From TrEMBL:
InterPro entries: PLATZ (IPR006734). It comes from Ananas comosus. This is Uncharacterized protein LOC109712170. Residues 160-169, 188-206 have a biased composition (Basic and acidic residues). Residues 152-237 are annotated as: Disordered.
Amino acid sequence: MVSPMIPMEKDEMGGPPWLRPLLKTSFFVPCEVHGDSAKSECNMYCLDCTGRALCSYCIPAHKDHHVVQIRRSSYHNVIRVSEVSKFIDISFIQTYIINSAKIVFLNGRPQPRPGKGVTNTCEICCRSLLDSFRFCSLGCKLEGMERDPHLTFTLRPKPYRPDSIHGSESDESSTPRKVRRTAASNHWIDHELRLAAPPHSDDEGGHLSNSISPGTPPIITYRTSPRKGKPRRAPQF
């Protein structure tokens, strides 16, 4: 029996209520329920139940819950950014590319002696980082929130951008100019045709036709002079 769904809002102590249980869960162990079945390794977690790790046979019982998959890199648990970023803000946490997928580590990996020339390290476990990051994992950021009250895992709404609906500014600025040039060209062509074309006898009041169609070229005849030669006399009898 699964637990009822719990709200996904931010916890008062920092972070959502499922984050701390997730970081403490043991993954890649045989399932307690389906241990006798093949491929029963636990590599998934239900954010609504916040219980033990789940295997593939446990998922049908959590079909209406939020379930994420945990992966492993160098014996450390990781999660894809595309999955976890749907629920929490992972800013200030360094990301990595593994098997063409961007991931973040669940827990810190202490590094007492940073490499030579390293100028930036994780504020919690001293792991070497790029200059634009402060933490190496979800767990380190969670611990860092106790020191910095401005840190949060709460997702902020994306700012409204009108160009996200109607296209980029470059598209909007270029398209009207093209339309105006085309309209002006058509107006000039129509005006020239009005001046050159004779009125149709079939139209009442001598109004010109506004239809644009290819004109028929005039028929030009050339007069040829008779061949000059010796005049021929009438035969004599």
